[in-house]
């Protein structure tokens, strides 16, 4: 999704689906991005382009326990400022590639860990017994 800044004269409403699966390279947490929608308003005032909106995405993430795929719906507000001074989040170029910016925000907003429903029933292994050959080591460490 590329935005040509020269074409923005008044507020522009955006309601688009964006294809982002090609941006997944070596991210081991995100297996796939099935669908991403961007809704919001672009406005240009005094060489500052503002975007106020919301991003919603259907992700396939990796379970932290079993490494199985987990479907996850993600939605978050997004407010961006494009400017060539210190007020901007990103530089104001003639053409802005929103896809990479949206993907970066998805990576930041996704949860660190997710669990597959099957992993919740798995029993964590009980405390292991120490092998007899190493029993005396615990006494040495305490001294």
Characteristic key phrases:
elongated, about 40% strand, four-stranded antiparallel β-sheet, about 140 residues, two-stranded antiparallel ribbon, mainly beta
Coarse morphology: elongated
Q: What order do the SSEs take from the amino end to the carboxyl end, as H and E?
A: EEEEEEHH
N→C terminal distance: 65 Å
Uncertain runs are: none
- Share of residues in helices: 10-25%
Strand line-up of the largest beta sheet: 2-3-4-5
| Beta-strand percent range | 35-45%
Q: Would you tell me the structural class of the helices and strands?
A: mainly beta
Q: In the residues, how many domains can be counted? A: 1
Largest sheet, in brief, is: 4 strands, antiparallel
Mean of residue pLDDT? 82
Number of helices: 2
Measured on Cα atoms, how large is the radius of gyration? 23 Å
How many distinct beta strands? 6
What would a concise description of this structure say?
The chain has helices spanning 98-109, 135-142; strands at residues 2-4, 12-18, 30-45, 48-62, 69-82, 95-97.
What does this structure look like?
It is built from 2 helices and 6 strands. It has 143 residues and is mainly β. It has one domain. The strands form 2 sheets. Strands 2-3-4-5 form a 4-stranded antiparallel β-sheet, covered by helices on one side. It has a two-stranded antiparallel sheet with strand order 1-6. A hairpin with a 2-residue loop joins strand 3 (30-45) and strand 4 (48-62). The N and C termini lie far apart (65 Å).
């Amino acid at each position: 999704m590329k935005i040509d800044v020269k074409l923005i004269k008044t507020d522009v409403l955006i309601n688009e689906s964006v294809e982002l699966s090609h941006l997944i390279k070596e991210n081991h947490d995100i297996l796939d991005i099935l669908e991403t929608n961007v809704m919001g308003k672009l406005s240009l005032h005094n060489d500052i382009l503002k975007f106020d909106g919301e991003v919603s995405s259907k992700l396939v993430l990796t379970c932290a326990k079993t490494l199985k795929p987990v479907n996850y719906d993600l939605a978050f507000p997004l407010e961006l400022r494009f400017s060539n001074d210190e007020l901007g989040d990103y530089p104001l170029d003639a053409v802005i590639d929103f896809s990479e910016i949206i993907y970066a925000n998805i990576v930041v907003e996704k949860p660190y860990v997710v669990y597959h429903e099957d992993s919740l029933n798995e029993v964590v292994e009980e405390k292991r017994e120490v092998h007899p050959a190493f029993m005396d080591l615990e006494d040495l460490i305490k001294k």
